[in-house]
Design brief:
With 203 residues, the chain is mostly helical. The protein has ten helices and no strands. The longest helix is centred in the first third of the chain and has 25 residues, at 53-77. The radius of gyration is 16 Å and the shape is globular.
């Protein structure tokens, strides 16, 4: 990995990740600005609050897909270290898109997109961990935090230090973006999956 390939990977990854698919899709469907609804985020969970499951599913696929494409493209052109950097940059782009004054989603979908692209078995393990935690505790946000926290350890166990480093960056952002959810969890005010939604969004 050279400084030039790293810069190219980071820049291209960020720009691809910063495409606000949730906003684009809902506007194209005539639903206006998704940021004016629900939690104000551009992720799939907030899109779901419009009542359009098809648009929410499309947002989820595209948000995870853009991160996967960024990582896989960098892997094909440069190598594993650049792929991890591009994936992390795409994640940052989703959470802090320059086009929306750095106010984006919470990054869970892009996190899983990077995971599945750079290590499919590890990504499946993280998805399974999310599903298990969600079924056990009933909180989408808590499940996401648990999966994110486990990611670097699993990457190190798989002898993927570059992926562990990328996950470490994403963990910090995921926990920061979920700080209001964490506060509600401690207060017992976080809505459970399928319950009444407040100002939360985990996508």
């Amino acid at each position: 990995m050279t400084v030039l390939t790293l810069i190219i990977s980071l820049l291209c990854g960020y720009l691809l990740g910063s495409i606000p698919f949730g906003l684009v899709i809902t506007r194209a469907a005539g639903l206006g600005d998704i940021r004016a609804q629900g939690s104000g985020n551009i992720g799939a969970t907030n899109v779901l609050r419009t009542g359009r499951k098809d648009l929410a599913a499309a947002t989820l696929i595209l948000d995870s897909g853009k991160a996967a494409i960024a990582a896989l493209a960098a892997w094909a052109v440069f190598g594993r270290p650049e792929a991890a950097a591009a994936g992390a940059a795409a994640f940052i782009g989703h959470c802090y898109p320059v086009w929306l004054k750095f106010r984006g989603g919470k990054g869970v979908a892009t996190f899983f997109g990077v995971s599945l692209a750079l290590s499919f078995p590890l990504g499946l393990m993280l998805c399974g961990l999310w599903l298990s935690a969600a079924a056990l505790f009933g909180y989408s946000s808590l499940a996401a935090l648990i999966a994110a926290a486990a990611a670097p350890l699993l990457a190190l166990a798989a002898h993927r230090p570059e992926l562990a480093a990328a996950f470490a960056v994403m963990i910090i952002v995921i926990f920061w973006r979920h700080r209001s959810n964490i506060a509600r969890l401690f207060k017992g005010e976080e809505p459970k999956i399928g319950g009444k939604k407040k100002e939360t969004d985990a996508a």
